[in-house]
Amino acid sequence: xxxxxxxxxxxxxxxxxxxxxxxxxxxxxxxxxxxxxxxxxxxxxxxxxxxxxxxxxxxxxxxxxxxxxxxxxxxxxxxxxxxxxxxxxxxxxxxxxxxxxxxxxxxxxxxxxxxxxxxxxxxxxxxxxxxxxxxxxxxxxxxxxxxxxxxxxxxxxxxxxxxxxxxxxxxxxxxxxxxxxxxxxxxxxxxxxxxxxxxxxxxxxxxxxxxxxxxxxxxxxxxxxxxxxxxxxxxxxxxxxxxxxxxxxxxxxxxxxxxxxxxxxxxxxxxxxxxxxxxxxxxxxxxxxxxxxxxxxxxxxxxxxxxxxxxxxxxxxxxxxxxxxxxxxxxxxxxxxxxxxxxxxxxxxxxxxx
Length: 354
Description:
The protein has a five-stranded parallel sheet with strand order 3-2-1-4-5, with helices on both faces. Strands 10, 11, 12, 13 and 16 form a five-stranded mixed sheet that branches. It has helices spanning 34-43, 64-79, 110-114, 130-139, 153-161, 197-210, 227-245, 294-307, 320-339, and strands at 3-7, 46-53, 85-91, 124-127, 142-145, 166-172, 176-183, 190-193, 213-220, 254-256, 259-260, 263-270, 276-280, 287-288, 291-292, 310-316. The longest helix is centred in the C-terminal third of the chain and has 20 residues, at 320-339. Helices cover 33% and strands 24% of the residues. The model has no long low-confidence stretch (mean pLDDT 89). 36% of the residues are buried. It starts with a strand and ends in a 15-residue tail after the last helix. The chain is built from nine helices and 16 strands. Strand 8, helix 6 (197-210) and strand 9 form a beta-alpha-beta unit. It has two domains: 3-161, Rossmann fold (3-Layer(aba) Sandwich); 166-339, Imidazole glycerol phosphate dehydratase, domain 1 (Ribosomal Protein S5, domain 2), CATH 3.30.230.40. Helix 1 (34-43) packs parallel to helix 5 (153-161). By secondary structure, it is α/β, with parallel strands linked by helices.
């Protein structure tokens, strides 16, 4: 879905000393860092719409033939830097004229208001006045108050585009009560409490090898057996990872690995949006601690299903503990480059979506 930034002009895109707006060519200056910031938004797939009030447009004091060249100059300057506006909406009326298009009224944006195809959760109005925040509220989207000294443009871009990727999933059934919190951009905290010591140890291997924060609590029906706890934690973990990844823009997508003493685990991961598990293992023992070895494949199937990932896992060895630990460590090591950002701003798929 399209993500839109509705941008004010005077005082947001161009500098606005108290005595002028865009009608003063001799004072025409862009706000600091607005170009590199908006280029980052453009690379991240944002669409731009300019929305501004222009007092006195078309009057004797500010004739339209003077205004249009200045406005066109602004648009051309930004376009030369890759910042292109899908639409430019300008209210020409003065305060008190009773029009329906002066911000914070939505008359300039009725087509966007009626259109349900753009992503309101990811979109925003950015401007330097209360009317911009009120417009955002009327559109049902985020409003951001721009101020050069306190919220400069590059900081705004970081807030939108580099925000930590976090998710918390709470899952409660008659068999388990689970909370999973992940942060893909922080290595701590790591806290695991499932009631199964060996399982907690394996979950810790995922977090530490992936370089992510993972906090899991599970109150499960262990008086029956371990099945529901291990399965449901896998389902909740996969869901949390998928939610934290968002649209997956800029991620590595793929991951591979890993040896551990006599055991060797081969793990291939693709955050493809398609759930598939291929699992090859012959464990010498039926249990390690309180964890049945048959639940290892079941756990990773649950993760794969809710993460919507293709996961191929194969392990050989003699020591069951080492074999299972190699799989969990391998999954973490495969996850690390797959979720890492830094592969540009595109979604890593020829289809444009994962």
